[in-house]
Design brief:
The complex is a heterotetramer, with two copies of chain A (about 100 residues) and two copies of chain B (about 150 residues). Helix content of chain A is about 25%, strand content about 25%. Chain A is of the alpha+beta class. The N and C termini of chain A lie far apart (about 65 Å). The chains are: A alpha+beta (about 100), B alpha+beta (about 150). Chains in contact: A-B, B-C, C-D.
Chain lengths: ~100, ~150, ~150, ~100
């Protein structure tokens, strides 16, 4: 017998799924990369910040004062980040 | 993207062209703001500034701000440009041109846009010191209003 | 008279040159205001404006205002020019360029100068209509604060 | 016997002394001249305005809302106008 799960339910993410997070300015300098790859089983923007801070301890303070953007929009701390999202951490800005 | 859309550019800003692009026979007031690299800030010498951006997000944010300014202040024209890369002392890193029937709106819109750009648009400056030192500038405040 | 002194001129205003003349390595903010002839004001078509002045008194008044703005707003540079004679629709009749360390002062000074110029400096505009009609503009308010 | 008046007292002005008053914009248009010559026996700025209004009735309303300048300075309504003064009537301004 073959079991077909409902088509609308995606398979659960492996905890080793890699999320790519864009970094900028002081965050990129602290992490020595502009694109941080993180194991990501899903979660909120706040959880992503905690995961980045754990992966790059030197940037922890700046991460905690950064916003999270998906695509071209800031998202709220409790918003969920889809697994294939175009994610960026936005440290306090200084243009102008 | 319309010709009036904000632009991030690596070459020099041409303020005269921006003013020409917002010109209108209905305009009585035209304002051009140029933000330029200071040689000294709070007593510390600056050799140049280097800017980077989350480019698609910054362009989208600038476009949203431009559209809001056009409506809120009843502008006839509005152009925004921001440099990326190294900007020498005396050169412009950001330019805003506005036109309106009357001067209050043209001034207020340019000031409002500068406030919003400095507070919200994902662009960052790095101070390049005379000794080769580099320092990214990250104010204490949070972007986007999220704690 | 120093090169930075206000000028009344009969040729076109060159805003780019005024900005260059207020440029400074200590400046982070530069504002150029251009007041331009509107083609329509309150529903009435304008062909052009014609300006005249009590020239020595106007130059002296502009110089006094410039000096006061330099001090009051801590400006690094300030240039003022006003056209005389016929100014076609779309052309600039008045230009103010300011530079300062920070943008608030540069904006505030340019706005303050425009308020003062429009209220106190002995310059007058004549509306030239499309039918050849002429009308000097004299607001109800008194110049110089004397009743 | 000859009487010498004190040296500091100028001879009284003839009432037919001519004062030249510069006019501008709507005032010049109403008076059809940029330089109005008025008989002037001396007096204040307010008295000068009355004299100009009497000489150019078409401009009376605009004269009453005008300031008086001597040289490059506005003067107060009760200030005295010297006989050889460089006088101008300044109607409400509209530059900018």
């Amino acid at each position: 017998m073959t079991i077909h799960p409902p088509a609308a339910t995606p398979p659960p993410l492996s905890p080793t799924h890699q999320l790519r997070v864009k970094l900028f300015a002081g965050l990129a300098a602290a992490a020595s990369t502009r694109l941080l790859e993180l194991p990501w089983g899903g979660g909120t923007a706040a959880e992503l910040k905690a995961a980045v801070a754990a992966a790059v301890p030197a940037a922890a303070a700046l991460v905690s004062s950064s916003g999270v953007a998906v695509g071209n929009q800031y998202i709220a701390p409790d918003a969920t980040i889809p697994p294939e999202a175009d994610v960026a951490l936005i440290p306090p800005v200084s243009g102008g | 993207m319309p010709a009036s859309s904000p632009r991030l550019l690596r070459g020099a800003i041409n303020g005269q062209r921006l003013l020409a692009e917002v010109a209108s026979n209905a305009a009585g007031a035209n304002v051009l703001f140029l933000g330029t690299t200071r040689g000294v800030t709070d007593g510390v010498a600056t050799q140049a500034l280097e800017y980077e951006a989350h480019e698609p997000m910054a362009v989208a944010a600038l476009e949203t701000l431009r559209n809001e300014a056009m409506e809120r202040f009843g502008l006839l024209g509005c152009r925004i440009e921001h440099r990326l890369g190294v900007v020498a002392v005396g050169e412009a890193s950001v330019a805003i041109a506005t036109s309106a029937a009357h001067r209050r709106e043209a001034f207020a819109a340019a000031e409002w846009l500068m406030e919003k750009i400095k507070a919200n648009v994902p662009i960052w400056k790095c101070e390049l010191g005379p000794d080769g030192g580099r320092g990214w500038v990250h104010p204490d405040a949070m972007p986007g209003g999220f704690p």
